[in-house]
Amino acid sequence: MMEVRQLDLVDYLAGISAPPAAAPQLNPLDLLPRRPKAWERLVAHVPAEDVRISVSPTWTRVVVEQLREDGCGDQLRANGSIVSHDVPPDLIWPEPCRLILMTAASAARIHERWCLEEAPRTGLTNTFRFAQQQHADRTPVSQQLCLLAEEQS
Fold first, then answer.
1. Rounded distance between C-alpha atoms, residue 34 and residue 129, angstroms
2. 99/124 Cα distance (integer angstroms)
């Protein structure tokens, strides 16, 4: 009789569905454009919550990224060169950040994979950050990026 109960327990346990394996968490930093190794080393310490994405209809494409911290402003130029400047504290960037300049289409591709939200307290319009939740409501920013894409075309 003992064997019958063991088989019943084994059958019961086999019939319990295992919880689905959690999907690997995407790192939002992996969605950013690849940059020269020297720049990647310079910004490697910047967490996702300190990244800002700026979409401007008037972007000249000379500067593609900025790192603002400790009174220094490093710029990555489109040609791959890195330029450093001393910058006074200002109201636009009161806290350290990595600012990435890009087209609305590029920002929309990132937004499809990880929700972007408006970045508060930047003093600039059309500046976004990664939302804390990957799958937050995308509608308002999607609409804003569509309008910006029209302005940039």
1. 18
2. 12
